[in-house]
Amino acid sequence: MKEFLEYLLGLIVNNKDELAIEEIPLAENNFQYNITSSPEDIGKIIGKDGKIIGSIRQVAKILAV
Fold it and tell me: How far is the C-alpha of 2 from the C-alpha of 47, rounded, in Å?
């Protein structure tokens, strides 16, 4: 999943060198992903009214199943 997020977010951001994704195991088969990026790219990742990050979450849920 981390590789997928790196690929997908790498297509969205301008500064790929500053993109970092941290995978934190919470429980068995349950992970949290922390995304860190440059300030100007955060707005692109979140999108207007959170639509882009919401879509990324939906796709991640589908892949997790």
Answer: 20
